[in-house]
Design goal:
- The chain starts with a helix and ends with a helix.
- The chain is mainly α and 417 residues long.
- It has helices at 3-17, 19-44, 49-68, 78-104, 112-131, 140-162, 164-170, 179-200, 204-224, 227-244, 252-275, 284-290, 298-316, 336-363, 373-389, 397-416.
């Protein structure tokens, strides 16, 4: 074999060792990369950062596929591949609906290129990339998660600070860093930083620094004024508290203390905002949060109406589905389950719903299988709640990548068992 061929093989072998690290970066870029990219655009006015971010994601995906092509294919259990097959069929059905309505009927708000850019290159391809080949089960994912979270919180906080007045009043001062993206980015950062403190037990200076970023992320959640991130954070804390009773490893008191402090911060933050007169009298974020269940909850009432119209569209054509978007609002119904039945019919809706239910039950069996399991479990819960209240299937890059990751981790757990 030539010297050049040996060098290529050596490079490939080195890359194979770091494929797990590539996947960790890919998952974290899917979770927090968009917030980082849009914050950079908002702060520095640099155009094209979001496109560059998606190009990096696609490059990492194809690098992973290339490396996997030289690795030995492992024997797998039947169940995970069964659910991946279900997910693949749903993706084909949903993609067919996108092509039909955007190209043939021309009734959608966006072009086919836009759908492909977001859905295919930010959700589907990264999802399959994290499924093939082993995920990093060491502590490096947790450490990387803390770094990405600190960077995301810093940039998001600076972006909001630069345009604080209009952001608090209108909730839409940014073209892409919208309040929902901001809120969920902050919640993801809280989860990753809390897991870093509880699992890695860093030295005191790093622990205090992480806690300060968690505090800043809490503020960003409230500033966003989005109730979906708050609901997901409440649910994550509730599940954490229910699981801490079974936690028998060293560090149980540190774990309990962090959870108690985070819960108290979540409860008393609105009181602190209102008690301290900081010129935030028009703080619409808290007004929206406290208006839940009231007659002036226009956003909530509109959401319920969109759900109702989405179900009506499904009832009109339950076999194949009625439409990608509601004809009245020209929007998706802001609920992944309703949208799946509405756009792909009974068969497609059952496919994605069954896969999400399977993944939800799979996370309950993770326990302490590996370092990546707990943050992935809570991130999946967060974005499952997000998919229930907001967003569209074609923009749900996080839920798809996490779904593929959960299926892969559960497969690895079953093989180890």
């Amino acid at each position: 074999m030539s010297f050049g061929g040996l060098r290529v093989l050596k490079t490939l072998s080195m890359a194979m060792i770091s494929i797990q690290l590539l996947k960790s970066h890919l998952i974290l870029l899917t979770i927090l990369g968009f917030q980082i990219a849009t914050s950079v655009t908002s702060i520095f006015g640099i155009e094209g950062v979001t496109l560059a971010y998606r190009a990096i994601v696609v490059f990492i995906c194809f690098l992973i596929f290339f490396i996997c092509a030289f690795q030995k294919v492992e024997r797998a259990t039947k169940v995970p591949y069964f659910f991946v097959s279900m997910l693949f069929i749903f993706i084909l059905l949903y993609s067919s609906r996108i092509v039909w309505e955007s190209e043939v009927l021309s009734v959608t708000r966006h072009s086919l290129d836009r759908y492909l850019e977001v859905f295919l290159f930010s959700a589907v391809i990264p999802g399959f990339a994290v499924f093939f080949g082993n995920l990093d089960r060491s502590s490096s994912f947790v450490k990387l998660g803390a770094f990405y979270s600190a960077l995301a919180v810093s940039l998001m906080a600076l972006a909001v600070y630069n345009d604080l007045g209009s952001f608090l009043i209108t909730r839409s001062s940014f073209d892409e860093l919208n309040p929902i993206v901001l809120g969920h980015g902050a919640v993801s950062s809280i989860i990753l930083l809390a897991c870093y403190i509880m699992h890695e037990k860093p030295k005191l200076s790093l622990r205090l620094l992480s806690i300060s970023f968690i505090a800043a992320a809490f503020i960003l959640v409230y500033v966003s004024g989005s109730r979906g991130p708050l609901v997901s954070l409440f649910l994550v804390l509730f599940i954490s508290f229910s699981g801490v009773l079974k936690f028998t490893q060293n560090g149980i008191w540190a774990r309990k203390s962090i959870l108690i402090v985070m819960t108290l911060a979540l409860i008393f933050a609105p009181i602190i905002f209102y008690t301290l007169d900081l010129g935030l009298s028009d703080f619409t974020a808290l007004d929206r949060i406290l208006s839940v269940g009231g007659g002036e909850d226009n956003s909530g009432n509109k959401r319920l109406e969109m759900w109702s119209r989405g179900l009506a569209v499904f009832n009109e054509n339950p076999i194949l589905g009625g439409a990608l978007e509601d004809e009245h609002y020209k929007l998706y119904p802001h609920n992944i389950f309703i949208e799946s039945f509405m756009s792909t019919g009974l068969f497609g809706g059952l496919l994605i719903s069954s896969t999400l239910v399977y993944a939800s039950f799979a996370t309950s069996r993770f326990q302490s299988f590996c370092s990546i399991c707990e943050p992935m479990k809570y991130l999946f819960i967060q974005y499952l709640v997000a998919a229930f209240f907001s967003g569209a299937i074609w923009t749900g890059s996080a839920i798809f990548v996490l779904l593929f990751s959960i299926i892969r981790l559960n497969r690895d757990r079953e093989l180890v068992s």
